[in-house]
């Protein structure tokens, strides 16, 4: 009975589909891989950190890249709508937009139909920077997925998209925006 419980425990802790314990070598330790959720978190955190490091060459932070991308996809997007899509605190969004405007990458234009609303547009420098971000993102994708062939990358993308949809994640929006500027919860 204890032998069966130990086997079950080992199969739960170790990814038995990836690495199997050689039953003829009782002292052989299986390689710890963790659950699929853990691996997704591990690779995701690594990929986000690496992408942030790649953006430093453009003197950008990760939130800047996402904001520029959304403005490029929806020229004239209002600050309020951008904030809603990102689920970001308004004060945090204003600070990020101020930084992008000071760098000459975006401009705020008053909406002629509603003078209380600002429409966001990329400047020529913003369009150029967005193209550079795209190049960096493609290089980053290639580096992170270097262990996979084209078919495996497509399969992984499809599976992750399926999970993202099931988890109701907003397409093209990193969930980290929700935490920007918020104080961590105390337990």
What would you say this structure looks like, in words?
It is a single chain. This protein has a three-stranded antiparallel sheet. With 187 residues, the chain is mostly helical. The longest helix has 21 residues, at 124-144. It has seven helices and three strands; from the N terminus they run αααβααββαα. The model is unreliable at 1-24 (pLDDT under 50). It has one domain (36-173): Winged helix-like DNA-binding domain superfamily/Winged helix DNA-binding domain (Arc Repressor Mutant, subunit A, Orthogonal Bundle), CATH 1.10.10.10. Strand 2 (106-111) and strand 3 form a beta hairpin.
Which keywords apply here?
single chain, 187 residues, mainly alpha, Arc Repressor Mutant, subunit A, 3 strands, 55% helix, disordered N terminus
In short:
It is built from seven helices and three strands. With 187 residues, it is mainly alpha-helical.
Helix and strand layout, with pairings?
Layout (H helix, E strand, L loop, with lengths): L1 H12 L22 H20 L6 H12 L3 E2 H8 L3 H13 L3 E6 L2 E9 L1 H21 L5 H17 L21
Helix pairs in contact: 2-6, 3-6
User: Which CATH architecture is right?
Assistant: Orthogonal Bundle
In round numbers, the mean pLDDT is 83
Q: How would you sum up the major sheet?
A: 3 strands, antiparallel
Tell the overall outline.
globular
Strand content: 5-15%
Number of domains: 1
Question: Could you tell me the number of beta strands?
Answer: 3
Distance between the termini: 39 Å
SSE string: HHHEHHEEHH
**Class, according to the CATH hierarchy?**
Mainly Alpha
Spatial strand sequence of the major β-sheet: 1-3-2
The name of the CATH topology is Arc Repressor Mutant, subunit A
What is the fourth-level CATH superfamily? Answer: Winged helix-like DNA-binding domain superfamily/Winged helix DNA-binding domain
